[in-house]
Sequence to fold (68 residues):
Amino acid sequence: MATARKITVEIPDELLQKAQQASGAGITQTIRAGLQLLAASQAYDRLLQLRGKVRFSRTFEELKEDRE
Fold:
């Protein structure tokens, strides 16, 4: 991260505890992970809107052959 902002947020104790249990990390890392997931979900939604609209020049079989 090039820059960071220090913020104050009010989060329900139970929500924070559940999030920390799920992440296995401290408060700051848990909040960062949640924000990253939220940002990624928006990008994922945009990709899903393209489903079936993008044509590739190579077939799935050709792509699999490249991996071997």
In short: The two ends are 36 Å apart (CA to CA).
